[in-house]
Automatic annotation (TrEMBL):
Membrane topology: Multi-pass membrane protein
Record's protein name: Spermidine/putrescine transport system permease protein
CDD domains per the UniProt record, alphabetical: TM_PBP2 (cd06261)
Provenance organism: Ancylobacter amanitiformis
Keywords noted in UniProt: Cell membrane, Membrane, Transmembrane, Transmembrane helix, Transport
Domain of life from the UniProt record: Bacteria
Membership in a protein family: Belongs to the binding-protein-dependent transport system permease family. CysTW subfamily.
Subcellular location: Cell membrane
UniProt lineage: Bacteria, Pseudomonadati, Pseudomonadota, Alphaproteobacteria, Hyphomicrobiales
Sequence ranges assigned to domain ABC transmembrane type-1 in this UniProt record: 65-273
Keyword Transmembrane helix on entry: yes
Residue spans crossing the bilayer: 12-36, 71-90, 102-126, 146-169, 252-277
Length: 283
């Protein structure tokens, strides 16, 4: 075999080894542990389906997965709405490339701090004696503090939208900047209204960015547990939080089984997105 034939394999070897060590091997290990048995003090390296049976047959687990999917759908819809219009404004209403870059960098400033710090910063704002409640009461809009603002599903969704909107803005903005402005001018010259241009030209051409942003947001929300723990005050649950609690109780096989099921569910969601939008073809 000549050097020219083996060169591609040599070039791919480092990445293959890295993926095998840091992706394939951990997933294989988690899958293997998910079939082990355990009790209150130790883990037995056996091959049983008990962990999966308990997960699938438990109404509490079903409710937790449904709750996680609820958060995912709501956060995805809100981040898509907010992210698309932010990206649209930057791409089509800001003419200067320098101004576009500056405003885009402004959007990334919150990422200079930790996710936990940005999330916790909502607590003094939304709390019973927080800034928002106090302001509304001083203005006479409400007579008593709004309890649903903090330690609720609303607080969880708000924090997630705050944390993950930029993951929707970035790919959509990148896709919108690739759109040939001549297409928009041609549609306008043909008598198309602004709404028709948006729905028939811009949104179809922005589908790859929307799909990529959706994949980012869906995978992040499905695996999130720290936001649910802090912002719900223990009043809500997610699969990630359930797994964290199982790990804290040393129930590693049960947590591994949930991790495998969650991975399969996320892959199905990503596959559904890619089936709707063929990113390779669109790009």
């Amino acid at each position: 075999m000549t050097l020219s034939r083996i060169a591609p394999y040599l070039q791919a070897t480092p990445l293959t080894l890295i993926l095998a060590a840091f992706l394939v091997l951990p997933i294989a290990t988690i899958t293997m542990v998910s079939f082990w048995d355990y009790d209150s003090i130790q883990i037995f390296p056996a091959f049983v389906f008990t962990n999966y049976e308990e997960t699938i047959t438990s109404p509490v687990t079903w409710n937790t997965y449904i709750n996680t999917l609820k958060f995912t759908v709501i956060v995805w819809a809100v981040t898509l709405l907010v992210g698309f219009w932010v990206a649209y404004y930057l791409a089509f209403h800001i003419r200067s490339a320098t101004a576009q870059m500056v405003l885009f960098l402004v959007c990334t400033i919150p990422f200079l701090t930790s996710n936990i710090i940005r999330m916790i910063s909502w607590i003094p704002f939304l709390g019973r004696n927080g800034l928002l409640n106090q302001t509304l009461m001083q203005l006479g809009i409400i007579n008593q503090p709004l309890e649903f603002l903090l330690f609720s599903d609303f607080a969880v969704v708000l924090a997630m939208v705050h944390l993950y909107t930029l993951f929707m803005v970035t790919p959509i903005f990148n896709t919108l900047m690739r759109i040939d402005r001549a297409l928009i001018e041609a549609a306008r010259d043909a008598g198309a209204s602004g709404w028709q241009i948006l729905t028939n030209v811009i949104i179809p051409l922005a589908k790859p960015g929307i799909a990529i942003g959706s994949i980012f947001v869906v995978t992040l929300v499905m695996g999130d547990f720290i936001t649910v723990r802090f912002m719900s005050g223990g009043q809500s649950a997610s699969v990630g939080l359930m797994m964290a609690n199982q790990i804290a109780l040393l129930q590693y096989p049960a947590a591994a089984a949930n991790a495998v099921i969650l991975l399969i569910l996320v892959l199905l969601l990503v596959g559904a997105i890619l089936r709707i939008v063929n990113i390779r073809k669109e790009l």
